[in-house]
Amino acid sequence: MANKPSIPKGTRDFSPTEMLRRKYIFSTIERVFQKYGFLPLETPAMENLETLTGKYGEEGDRLIFRIQERGRTFESGVAKAVAAGEGDPKRTSDQVRQQTASEGLRYDLTVPFARYVVQNQNEITFPFKRYQIQPVWRADKPQKGRYREFYQCDADVIGSTSLISEVELVQLFDDVFTALGLHVVVKINDRKVLSGIAEVSGQPEKVVDIVTAIDKLDKIGREKVEEEMRTKGVSDEAIKGIAPLFELKGTWSEQRPQLEKWLSASPTALHGLKDLAFTFDAVGPMKSAILEFDPTLARGLDYYTGAIFEVKAAEGTMPGSICGGGRYDDLTGIFGLKNMSGVGISFGADRIYDVLLETNKFPAELGGSTKLLFANFGAAEAMHCLKLLRQVREAGIAAELYPDHVKMAKQFKYADDKGIAYVAIIGENELKQGIVTVKDMKTGEQKAVKQEELIATIQA
User: Fold this and answer.
1) Sequence-ordered alpha helix ranges (H) in 123-266
2) Distance in angstroms (rounded) separating the CA atoms of residues 20 and 39
3) Residue 419 in contact with residue 369, Cβ under 8 Å?
4) CATH classification code of 372-459
5) What angle do CA 92, 98, 99 make, to 5 degrees?
6) CB 135 within 8 A of CB 145
7) Does residue 64 contact residue 171 with C-beta atoms inside 8 Å?
8) Topology of domain 16-64+107-358, per CATH?
9) Domain boundaries in the chain?
């Protein structure tokens, strides 16, 4: 007996109904991107490993899917290394995995974007505003809301240090989720504030370890965060110095004076607080989003240097963020192009899909599906319907002819199952009289119309 086919864990098939919903999300986001002046871009699914590694921190690097070099098998590499006495099989397998891979699947869209900018810097007009909607891959442990293959919808502005870009990206979040009918919370912080916290703790050299641990606060709690910091070499005295961070409560306007007092010895932190104040003041009233300062928001990616964003749904049970992003002052410098500041955001389309589905926020009719079905009463009637079918389609109506001459009950069921709004019935009598009987599949009502009135009837 043949094995039942399956797909890799952390991936999904998408049915026609699901695809219509996904396209609704993508087209909504894309419309807003274009409204804000962003231009489309695509990059390859795979990048050279040297392009990807070292940009996401130690944890991120472990989640990159590596592509084995052509002509060298992983198993033979391990066997040869072990036979040569180069180590135990488990450790050697990790070494060989690294050695036999020179490319990897992209982990996100930002690093490939930075690589593209460096390669094409002489043809680009700066500031460069691009959007990109493509899949990314992460060798993560699959769980609810976390997939190993998923789409990101990114918008980035590169070539400007102006905080107006941050303001517009917050407004862009609001416009997208207003269009999708979803209420969200846009959380914001600044890495300069977090760097200042590391400074006043007395261990500024441990900023990455401190920030990476703080980023997990909502997932593992304060005790585990402090424990992780200790394992990374952060002293108890430094951890004590960070303690006021965990005690902060209230709104941005309430927290700001507390932070300015606590971090007064750090010019870096005060700079970050000033930038945050500008963003809060300039964003203005929002429609579907609430802008909220989160002092523990850190995001683990090493390349963020200024503002950092995270968006969480205010509806449904999605535990994590559905969007994220931030300012990176010198990402392109890694590739040789210095002093090219950028800021970008990313929409997690798969997570947004799950939230919209759970909260029943998808429109009942998404378009793209058949609106009119011509019933099939036999060869002569079908030939006549084919002529009308072309006219209907040329009028912009999605329509089809049932291909087989079968019982009407089966054809009506087909229309019901596909959500087709109308069925055009042209039997022997209708053919003789030059009329069409149109059945509304939602109400069950039927009415006869002249053939030349069919298009107007369906468009009404």
Assistant:
1) 164-180, 191-201, 207-214, 217-231, 236-242, 244-247, 252-262
2) 23
3) yes
4) 3.40.50.800
5) 85
6) no
7) no
8) BirA Bifunctional Protein; domain 2 (3.30.930)
9) 16-64+107-358, 372-459
Give me the pLDDT at residue 147, please. Answer: 87
DSSP single-letter state for residue 376: -
Phi-psi region of 331 (alpha: psi -120 to 50; beta: other; left: phi over 0): alpha
Please, which residues have CB within 8 angstroms of residue 231's CB and are 6 or more apart in sequence? none
What is the structure's pLDDT at 85?
A: 52
CA–CA separation, 171 and 320 (whole Å): 21
The DSSP string of 92-126 is HHHHHHHHTEEEEE-S-SHHHHHHHHHHTTTTPPS
- In order of 113, 184, 336, 346, the CA distances from 340 in angstroms are 13, 31, 10, 19
Contact 371, 418 (CB under 8 A): no
CA 415 – CA 371 distance, rounded (Å): 9
Q: Which residues pair with 103 in a beta bridge?
A: 48, 67
Beta bridge partners of 149: 137
Return the residue matching tokens 């396209």. 23
13 — pLDDT class (breaks 50, 70, 90): very high
Residue 89's pLDDT is 53
pLDDT of residue 279: 98
Averaged pLDDT score across all residues of the chain: 90
CA pair distance 210, 229, nearest whole angstrom: 6
Read off the pLDDT of residues 388-416 as tens digits, 9 standing for 90 and up: 999 999 999 999 999 999 999 999 999 99
Q: 16-64+107-358 with 372-459: one CATH topology? A: no
CB-CB contact of 149 with 256 (8 Å): no
